[in-house]
Amino acid sequence: MTANFTASGASPHLLVVRNDKLGDFMLAWPALASLKQASPTPRISVMVPAYTAPMARLCPWIDEVLIDPGENADRAAHQALLRKAKAADFDALLTLYSTPRIGWLGWRAGIPLRMAPATKWAQIFYNCRITQRRSRSDKPEYRYNQELAEALLERLDLVGGSTPQPPFWPLAAQTRKTQRYRLAKELDLPADRPWCFLHGGSGGSAVNLTPARYAELVQRIEARQEGPLRPLWILTAGPGEEATAEAILRPLTEAGLEVYHLPPRDGLDDFAITLAAADLFIAGSTGPLHIAGCLDIATAGFYPARRSATPLRWQTCNRAEHRLAFCPPEGCGERDMDSIDLDDAATRIANLLKSLTRQEFSS
């Protein structure tokens, strides 16, 4: 049985686990926001890998970060994690993506309520399982996560607030101004022009456009621009992706476009905050695209067409009017990114950019 926190006024201590890739973790922020807005307000700890920990520490819905050493860590590291989990005296565990190792950890830590999606044999370690059938890709991933959070609040008898709305990473307006000033100074950029960030890397897993196709896309967008507020293009890259950014930059520079390479940032957290300077972010379905989505920056994402990775399933969590998505058309190979109609994509992106320009730069 779980305690009646509403009656007692006590704040439950929750452990939320999303210990895989950056994009997956960013799509957990709406669920974390839902949990944090409940009454009584819970204390929220998350378990993440060291890679995404800098983002977890920036999340306004998180109170404490536990580092998951990963499957390949030695026994001492796993024992240390178990001791921390026991000492924290968690009231509930919510695993957004269940694995046997984490389920076994929660059971051994004595966490009384352990909730996860009802999938795979890992569910035997959980005493509260929610059927979702995510493989059907009927909903965005972040909505599946929010539904789990809402089920946990109901099970704990907590009073949920209204459904949180974007931005799920709310930053003060001054933060955007500071980042634009910083980048303008670094690259000698005019601040009164729209800034389009483009991330051509794939994070090692996501299917993406080739550098040549991205360069073609940018030129087609440019051909649809009118007036003095033509965009500036800023190319971003993750570790080991600099060659991809350079392969996009070279033909665009030769074509006379104003294109820049984002200078190295001081870690993932610094890179993420820099994205607040963008007016539009273009990328494949990668972690940086989902950071931009959490910031409610306008996004244009390029996705494969396979069922487990559709634009709907991995939709960014920004407002609908800030979101565009493109994938291979029906009848083409699910990973055939060359089949995406760049002319159509350029038109839709250019129209979105024009609407943003009118809102932000018309005054």
Protein architecture, described:
This protein is α/β, with parallel strands linked by helices. It folds into 2 domains: 151 residues, Glycogen Phosphorylase B (Rossmann fold); 189 residues, 3-Layer(aba) Sandwich (Rossmann fold), CATH 3.40.50.2000. 38% of the residues lie in helices and 15% in strands. It contains 13 helices and 12 strands. The strands form 2 sheets. The protein has a 6-stranded parallel β-sheet with strand order 3-2-1-4-5-6, with helices on both faces. The longest helix has 20 residues. The N and C termini lie far apart (58 Å).
Strands, helices and their partners?
Layout: H1 5-8, E1 13-17, H2 22-26, H3 29-36, E2 43-48, H4 53-58, E3 64-67, H5 75-88, E4 92-95, H6 100-108, E5 113-117, E6 128-130, H7 141-155, H8 173-187, E7 195-199, H9 211-223, E8 232-236, H10 242-254, E9 259-261, H11 268-274, E10 280-284, H12 287-294, E11 298-302, E12 323-326, H13 342-361
Parallel strand pairs: 1-2, 1-4, 2-3, 4-5, 5-6, 7-8, 7-10, 8-9, 10-11, 11-12
Helix pairs in contact: 3-7, 9-10, 9-13
Mean pLDDT: 93
CATH H-level name of the largest domain... which superfamily? Glycogen Phosphorylase B
Shape: elongated
- How many helical elements? 13
Low-pLDDT windows of residues: none
Number-wise, the strands total 12
Main sheet specs: 6 strands, parallel
Question: How far is it from the N-terminal to the C-terminal residue, by CA?
Answer: 58 Å
Structural class: alpha/beta
GO cellular component, one term: cytosol
InterPro entries: Glyco_trans_9 (IPR002201), LPS_LOS_Heptosyltrfase (IPR051199)
Pfam families: Glyco_transf_9
Protein name: Lipopolysaccharide heptosyltransferase family protein
